Amino acid sequence: MKIAIVCDVLGEENNGTTVAAMNLIRYLKGRNHDVRIVCPDEYRRGEPGYFIVPQLNIGPLNTYVKKVGVTIALSNDSILEAALVDADVIHIMTPFFLGKAALDYGREHGIPVTAGFHCQAENITSHIRLMNSTLVNNLTYKAMYHLVYQYVDAIHYPTQFIRDVFEAEVGSTPGYVISNGVNSRFVKTAAERPAQWKDRFIILFTGRYGKEKSHHVLIDAVAHSRHESIIQLVFAGEGPLHDEIKKHGEKLTFAPYLHFFSRDDMLHMINCADLYVHPAEVEIEAIACLEAISCGVVPVIADSPRSATKYFALGEKNLFHYNDPVSLSERIDYWIEHPKEKDECSLAYQGFTRRFEQERCMQEMETMILETIKKHSINQMTIQEQEK
């Protein structure tokens, strides 16, 4: 099959959407599909299968976008047509400028279109300081629907949670709930921690440095902990709030370590961690949390109503009340003071992530795409027969 993957944002694998896109691309190529990738990443020019469109120029906001760690695409008709002209199906990763243009092309030329749902309204509204406005978030979902999602043949939702959130605003959709999946390489292994951290209790959190990820809650929780003097925070990621998070953490005995890790280094860092804390208030899935669990690290997760990650908790000790540093500090202290129970919890999580195995999830994505092609073909034949 000729499958076009359209990515408004791709770039380095420093965010969940890019990781999901690259996992799908690699899997489909491995299945010998003809995969065409449309994206704005100039450094990929010349790579087989890549069609490079211009980057969106937004003047004075370019610096901010770069600080976020992404590149945004601007559609180009000739490049888009070269990639899509004989495609059997188009898969849109996000409902932005390039994705909308690809959708319009697909509708005009009778090509089935599927779309991923990787962007919560708050991921957008947090940049304009309206993350907590229910009205603005609901309007954002409605805009996504009216511009893109109402016209696609199938929608990929990483969790039932985000499907429920979206459909509560727009009604029923042709959806498939499929996890983005955890790579099989994320398993518990022996890892030598940095010498300077040998006697510290390492707490890891992986997430973009953005407001909705709530890094400050974890910093404040550690400051309130009875064991503050031995805790080393590690914030894996990058993003616009890097300097703010770094400054906020200066009050701790050991300043948080902020760093973007390669996938190999991330696996090593997870296996060095004593606890994984996910304080994010807004989250569609959080594969990063599942990766930590897969390596045997016990998680503590915010119980936010705007996060799907809370469903990864096996018990109340794996949850804390979101945006509440005191509640989180109580959980941290519990796990530090009860190492035997922590080991037992780690064992209890064995097998939990099997349902999220990446190979299985990518098989389901391929099935969704192939089913969509088949259904679209049947619908087209039905329409043609009715027109006779």
Q: Classify the helix fraction into a percent range.
A: 40-55%
Nearest-integer average pLDDT: 94
Task: Please give the count of helices.
Answer: 14
Instruction: Indicate the structural class.
Output: alpha/beta
Q: Find the count of extended strands (DSSP E, 2+ residues).
A: 13
Strand content: 5-15%
Q: What's this entry about, in short?
A:
The chain is of the alpha/beta class. The chain has helices at 16-30, 62-68, 77-84, 97-109, 121-125, 134-147, 160-170, 215-224, 242-248, 263-272, 287-294, 325-337, 339-348, 358-387, and strands at 2-6, 34-39, 50-52, 89-92, 113-116, 154-157, 175-177, 201-206, 231-236, 257-259, 275-278, 299-302, 319-320. α3 (77-84) packs across α4 and α8 (215-224) crosses α12 (325-337).
Describe the model:
- The protein is 41% helix and 14% strand.
- It is globular and about 75 Å long.
- The longest helix has 30 residues, at 358-387.
- The chain has 388 residues and is α/β, with parallel strands linked by helices.
- Strand 6 (154-157), helix 7 and strand 7 (175-177) form a beta-alpha-beta unit.
- A seven-stranded parallel β-sheet has the order 3-2-1-4-5-6-7, with helices on both faces. Strands 10-9-8-11-12-13 form a six-stranded parallel β-sheet, with helices on both faces.
